[in-house]
Amino acid sequence: MKHLDRLVVGKEAALGITWETYFLDKRLLPLLEKKKSEGLFFLSVGRGDGAVVEHLIRRGWPVGRVVGPNMMSNS
Asked: How much is the pTM?
């Protein structure tokens, strides 16, 4: 995860800022302010079992719905 922190956050990663915190504060929360009435959802197009998306939702990210190949088969 430290590699991902450096890729997303850059030099601020040395200050202990993670990619999760950076993305939530700089991208997701401002978007949520603009789209309050619509809410937010994740579109998962990557490979894997959705563990990263599940992790973020468990950490309290303000996402109401997840859409993606693995999730659609469970609907």
From this structure: 0.58
